[in-house]
Amino acid sequence: MKNSSQKIKINHSPKDLFNIVLDIEKYPEFIPWCSNIIIISKNDKEIIADMIVKYNKLFPLKFSSHVLFNKKKLFIKTNYIKGPLKDLKTEWIFKEIESSITEVTFKIEFEFKKFLHQKVAEFFYKLIEDKMIESFKRRADSILN
User: Fold this and answer.
1) Edge to edge, what strands does the sheet with 34-42 contain?
2) How many Å apart are CA 120 and CA 112, to the nearest integer?
3) Residues 17, 140: contact at Cβ < 8 Å?
4) φ and ψ at 99, to 5 degrees?
5) What pLDDT, on the 0 to 100 scale, is given for residue 4?
6) What b-and-e string marks burial along 80-113, b requiring 16 or more CB atoms within 10 Å of the CB?
7) Three-class secondary structure of residue 118 per DSSP
8) Cα–Cα distances in Å, from 133 out to 6, 13, 40, 68, 113?
9) pLDDT tens across 76-132, in order?
10) Helix, strand, coil percent values for the chain (each to nearest 5)
11) Less CB within 10 Å around the terminal CB: N or C of the chain?
């Protein structure tokens, strides 16, 4: 299983950043390769949703996930339900460092069902992870500045 953890500082409040990451219905507007989000169920602590990912001329892939979140502790955890992967877990933690400066911790673990897909994903992983985090940062700047 491939795993990664990043900590970055962003010049916005933890609550605002938490809300942007949790607003998964808006992902198709700013996340590369995300073409659609389908909410299966949603309440004040969890969301079950399908993310449709489409890259270039490949067929769309559906990733079903269970998202757990805590608005007071400002964390979001995602557990994989079904799709082309064997497993996927993500975690976002938002911690105020100074007024309007947040340390965001992003952790991910994933494993594809097929060995070849896993190796290709691991090769391109850093590029994909950086592009996604940059997309969230740009989204925060465009909404909050």
Assistant:
1) 2-10, 101-112, 85-98, 75-82, 61-70, 46-53, 34-42
2) 10
3) yes
4) -60, 120
5) 86
6) beebebeebbbbbbbeeeeeeebebebebebbbe
7) helix
8) 10, 16, 25, 20, 25
9) 999 999 988 889 999 999 999 998 899 999 999 888 777 777 777 777 777 778 888
10) 30, 50, 20
11) C
d(CA 32, CA 93): 22
**Amino acid identity for residue 77 in this structure:** K
Tell me, what DSSP letter sits at residue 72? T
In the chain, the domains with their CATH numbers are 2-144 (3.30.530.20)
Handedness of CA 6, 106, 125, 129 (dihedral sign): negative
Q: Are 39 and 51 in contact (CB under 8 A)?
A: no
CA angle 105, 110, 115 (to 5 degrees): 150
Which residues are 89's β-sheet partners?
79, 109
For every residue of 77-108, DSSP letters joined together read EEEEEESSEEEEEEEEEEEEEETTEEEEEEEE
